[in-house]
Amino acid sequence: MENVSTVVPTSNGGFALDYNNVLWHWHGEVTIWNEDRVIPARLSPEPVLENVATISNNGSFAITTDGRAYTLGWLEPAIAINGVRYATSLGGANFAITTDNHLVAWGRNRLPDHWRSAPLLGDGTTIYRDTPVLIMENVASITLKGNTAYAITTTGELWGWGNNGGALGSGLIGDGSIFVWDDIEEDMWDFYVHEDGFEDGVIWLMEDDAGTGVRLSPVKIMENIVVVAPTYFIFDHGWIRGFRTFALTTTGEIWAWGQNDTFWDDVCFVGDGTGEDRLYPVKITG
């Protein structure tokens, strides 16, 4: 293509936004199992939406020039919410920043199992939300990774919530907490069971975090932050491990926290010269 301003790759295709604000899409063949039908492959870019101002970095939402958020996927784009400037999603949890910098969220809202990425919405509950609910005000950006969400405010404060990345006993959100799976009683969990008997993850039954390190609402991590970059690797059955987060300050310093050791053949160091897990941010470089 020519005249392209933004490209977003997806699992089997991609999106491109051109300088005329037209969104293009291509993908491989897709089977919709619950509808028993197949969507044919789109082997070359085709226009799917006009007047697009921006697209989320995972290709889940497109925002039009008049502030409408459209959900993207294999089907035709559909309006999800009005009055927004950015929207994104992960694992069925949806987040949008409105034109007045309010962070709202809707959709899936439960603690997932180890191998399914999906952050909690951050509204203090585990209730599925059909419509957007207010999470925070004065939000500049939202970043999702694994089972954790981070928001940077318009004044540079970094806030985070979720189950610290979902790593088994070693996920670290940066507020001094650690998620310890072994401390959770059996009666604190429940399962979604489909008609075919497949168990789809777990539901968090407690009213609050109960000291486990799971954060149902945003907690403040740092100040003077302009960029946050969480990361992890996946091993064995697809479990999330090696969760670390890096943050860039307004003065150009890099700070990091999280798992800080060698696990099997993978290394996950935060870069502070030690091999100790970091529950709080540590300065890496100026």
Question: Could you please describe the fold and organization of this structure?
Answer:
- The structure is a single chain.
- This protein is mainly β and 286 residues long.
- The chain has one domain (83-285): Regulator of chromosome condensation 1/beta-lactamase-inhibitor protein II (Methylamine Dehydrogenase, Chain H), CATH 2.130.10.
- It is built from no helices and 26 strands.
- It has strands spanning 4-10, 13-18, 23-27, 30-32, 37-39, 42-49, 52-55, 61-64, 68-71, 78-82, 84-90, 93-98, 103-107, 129-136, 139-145, 148-153, 158-162, 189-193, 199-204, 215-222, 225-235, 239-249, 254-258, 261-263, 266-268, 278-285.
- Strands 1-2-3-6 form a 4-stranded antiparallel beta sheet, with no helix packed on it.
- It is globular.
- The model is unreliable at 165-170 and 191-204 (pLDDT under 50).
Kindly summarize this structure in a few lines.
This protein is mainly beta. 0% of the residues lie in helices and 53% in strands.
Strand order of the largest sheet: 1-2-3-6
**Rg calc:** 20 Å
Beta-strand percent range: over 45%
Helix-strand topology string: EEEEEEEEEEEEEEEEEEEEEEEEEE
Note the main sheet.
4 strands, antiparallel
According to DSSP, the number of beta strands is 26
Write the layout of secondary structure elements.
Blueprint: E1 4-10, E2 13-18, E3 23-27, E4 30-32, E5 37-39, E6 42-49, E7 52-55, E8 61-64, E9 68-71, E10 78-82, E11 84-90, E12 93-98, E13 103-107, E14 129-136, E15 139-145, E16 148-153, E17 158-162, E18 189-193, E19 199-204, E20 215-222, E21 225-235, E22 239-249, E23 254-258, E24 261-263, E25 266-268, E26 278-285
Antiparallel strand pairs: 1-2, 2-3, 3-6, 4-5, 7-8, 8-9, 9-10, 11-12, 12-13, 13-14, 15-16, 16-17, 17-20, 18-19, 21-22, 22-23, 23-26, 24-25
